[in-house]
UniProtKB/TrEMBL annotation:
Organism, scientific name: Geodia barretti
Protein name, UniProt field: ABC3 transporter permease C-terminal domain-containing protein
Membrane-spanning intervals of the chain: none
Domain of life assignment: Eukaryota
Keywords: Cell membrane, Membrane, Transmembrane, Transmembrane helix
Subcellular location: Cell membrane
Domain ABC3 transporter permease C-terminal: 9-91
GO cellular component: plasma membrane
Membrane topology qualifier: Multi-pass membrane protein
Main location per the UniProt record: membrane
Length: 109
């Protein structure tokens, strides 16, 4: 988040000149980054399922080109995926909340 603050100083300054407090600005940036993380996880998961289907389909035929019986069944190990997602969200949370202690009374970061 600090890198975003440094790379878009003009945008942040413009938003502050419109009247956004530092807390509102922090909330806006956090919401923006959370949206990117959620979309990345969702699209990445969907793409992974699609790639699995694409990779398994050519393997699900016999030596004479007929579909094998029983067909391949793709199984996702969610006991591995969910902790991975939780770690990604924890890294996101740690990167947004921990390095910016806020003085809630004075709205200073």
């Amino acid at each position: 988040m600090l890198l975003v603050g440094e790379s878009s100083e003009h945008e942040l300054g413009f938003l502050q000149s419109l009247g956004l407090s530092k807390i509102q600005l922090l909330g806006l940036l956090s919401c923006e980054h959370l949206t990117v993380v959620a979309l990345g996880l969702g699209v990445g998961t969907w793409a992974g399922f699609q790639m699995s289907r694409l990779m398994v389909a050519p393997l699900a035929v016999s030596d004479i080109g007929q579909s094998i019986v029983p067909p391949f069944i793709l199984v996702t190990d969610w006991s591995l995926m969910l902790p991975t997602y939780a770690m990604i969200l924890a890294i996101f949370h740690h990167g947004h909340v921990r390095p910016l202690p806020i003085d809630w009374k004075n709205e200073t970061v």
